[in-house]
Amino acid sequence: MNDTVSPPPVEDAKSVRELREELPLYVARVKVYPKRIKGFFRRWKWTALTVCLSVYYLAPWLRWDRGPGQPDQAFLIDMGSRRAYFLWIEIWPQEVYYLAGLLMIGAFGLFLVTSLFGRVWCGHFCPQTVWTDLFMAVERFVEGDRGARIRLDKAAWSARKVAKKATKHAIWIAISVATGGAWIMYFNDAPTLILDILHLEVPLAVVFFIGLFSATTYLLGGLAREQVCTYMCPWPRFQAAMFDEDSLIVTYQKWRGEPRGAYRKGESFEDRGDCVDCKQCIAVCPTGIDIRDGNQLECIGCALCIDACNEVMDRIGRPRNLIDYTTTQNLVARERGEAPRLHLIRPRTLIYFLLLSIVGGVIFYGLATRDDLEINILRDRNPLFVTLSDGSVRNGYTFKILNKDHDARIFSLAIEGLQLPQMRLVGNDQTKAVQTLIAAPDHVSTYRVYVSVERDTLKTDATDFEFRLIESGKPEHRHGSVFRGPKK
Amino acid sequence: MATDREKDAVTGTETTGHEWDGIRELDNPLPKWWLYVMYACILWSVGYYFLYPAIPWLDGHTKGTLGYTERTRLVEDIAEARAAQASYFKQIETSSLAEIRANQNLLDFANAGGRASFAENCAPCHGSGAAGGPGYPNLADDDWLWGGKLENIYATLRHGVRWPQDEDTRVSDMPRFGEEELLTKAQISDVTEYVLSFTDKSEDAAAAGRGKAIYAEQCVACHGPTGDGNMEVGAPRLNDAIWFYGDDKATVAAQIAGPQQGVMPSWQGRLDDVTLKMLTVYVHSLGGGQ
């Protein structure tokens, strides 16, 4: 949001043809050469990058013992056996809704952080920003700083230029393949996968995905860079909805900086602004914008321009923070000479926090209280009931017992609510009043149970009753069901 | 309108000329690489037109040089599935019915295959849940006309019941007592009462008493002295709670007078032996198998 209200109308109207001739439909990309800078925000960016990349590359190697026959990788999504492992948590495919919960937490968290602290995601933690920063660092290492890179690009092709470009792209490709490989390691056991790759015994799917993620890393991080932020990502485009006048963002202190102009050592700063038009803020910007134009879509909030400007301010002996990480409310306040305020707790942030807490709480509660046993009883609907030759009525039930435990569990199955029911378990073919069901570990066990009662004991055509699953030493599970018979 | 294009004071960019609720949009030029990506997509699509079926034509459509059709793809997928199941089919083919039933793995496979075949071949008469109806046996109960053991079910499936084209077809020949005037109406009424008395449904004890003698003469040979029936000849059990056509006096009397005699196709020749075995195992597992 900039501080103009509505643009003034043009005095001299132009015809459509005239206008169209002035405006090109498409423009070639302007290459951005960010300059190296040191400072507080740059250090933060390096920290964020190190933390994020360390987690990404190292997490698959962490081990977590789950017992014999179980995968020992701490973070693993095992597509083949349809399980997801996160440390001690094991997610079954039925519980994929936790992913929805995670995404909601991510979204609300992002809204909250952005409304408080501006685009810290875009500038420091987004994978695009992290890998682009890494690739730019490699480029700076191989080809030199901004000036050297511009000269190299303008220079004619020579052996030196070829060598430099080849080296840079080679390192980029190596990083991309490592990135693609690391992604695959979340889906396969990491040490086994590395050995398989070295022995060239990997399935086609693995090769394909490593190739895919390497290609996208190289393309997006190496070639596309800021084009992703400007044209591909939706986040910049609704940032305006996340900010308000009390969000901390990168702001040029216009009241202090204008009128800007060149400065010679020894001149006084009276009747002029502090901005010496050194254009360092533009030079270090990864998206190549001028923050002095105000807050804009392309500004990813990395605040490297603040570091650059502070460096210059230090050199000319002026106070720091001509570009400041502050709110637009404070910008106006300082302009008017009023005291700045930090208003972090406000309705917007409170609501985001509340939503985040609710969703987080629900997911956390669900995770903490989830049972490692799930029993589903499906009553046969076709036929509703069967009359047997001795006149008794029989209903069929399918038991599906999800045992997420690593040990088998044994249940005694009994019935309450029917008179003298007889049960037959398909498989052991013994008709008894109580049957034994065994739930195999880490498995969905299916059992067919036939329940029969004497016809006269039924008072209505639909009798409610309960199955009791009794486990020694544990609370019993009760499941209500219905017994259907002929119309009375 | 185009003439409403204004120059934004801050960026110097023109607006598109339209306004929505006071909001105007800057008309920034698009990046050239969007254009190039679009060209690349168009080129890619041109390839598709040549390789795959694409353009509806006067008498069909362009087939594409790869000769790809969804139908051949389906056929290939089915063949692949069959190949994957081949080892199971082989085992079922070479095993006896009892052996299939004893092997849990094989049993699960056979039940699944049987369920699928049942839905396609048997459900039209026996019902989708095998519950049958009047004149169509309930395969889920424990009352069998021709025997509920695996071998019995297998034989019934293979040869059918009263199927003219099969020389080994099962035939139960109940005399037409009323139509061929073997018994009078009164006699039929009495013997009906006696038969109903097996399950305590008789309301006329005197008639039942008279019917007992008739039963001993005419019915015992097939249905047995106490109405137990005879699975060898397909004579139903008369002393249980399951009635094929109905348990009221009129229906039973009508069945004695002019028996309805159901027909079941013989499935050997129509279905291969593996399918027949799977169906046998499946029907046996429906709850009434002996």
Layout of SSEs?
The complex is a heterodimer of chains A (488) and B (290).
Chain A: H1 16-22, E1 26-27, H2 40-58, E2 75-78, E3 83-86, E4 89-91, H3 97-117, H4 120-125, H5 127-143, H6 146-154, H7 159-185, H8 190-198, H9 204-224, H10 226-232, H11 239-242, E5 249-252, H12 254-257, H13 280-284, H14 304-316, E6 323-326, H15 328-336, H16 347-369, E7 373-379, E8 386-387, E9 393-403, E10 409-416, E11 422-425, E12 431-432, E13 435-439, E14 443-453, E15 462-470, E16 477-484
Antiparallel strand pairs in A: 2-3, 3-4, 5-6, 7-9, 8-9, 9-14, 10-13, 10-15, 11-12, 11-14, 15-16
Chain B: E1 15-20, E2 23-26, E3 30-31, H1 32-51, E4 56-57, E5 60-61, H2 70-94, H3 97-102, H4 104-121, H5 123-126, H6 150-159, H7 185-197, H8 205-218, H9 220-223, H10 249-257, H11 273-284
Helix pairs in contact in B: 4-11, 6-11, 7-8, 7-10
Short description:
With 488 residues, chain A is α+β, with helices and mostly antiparallel strands. Chain A contains 16 helices and 16 strands. In chain A, strands 7, 8, 9, 11, 12 and 14 form a 6-stranded antiparallel sheet that branches. In chain A, strands 13-10-15-16 form a 4-stranded antiparallel sheet, with no helix packed on it. In chain A, strands 2-3-4 form a 3-stranded antiparallel sheet, with no helix packed on it.
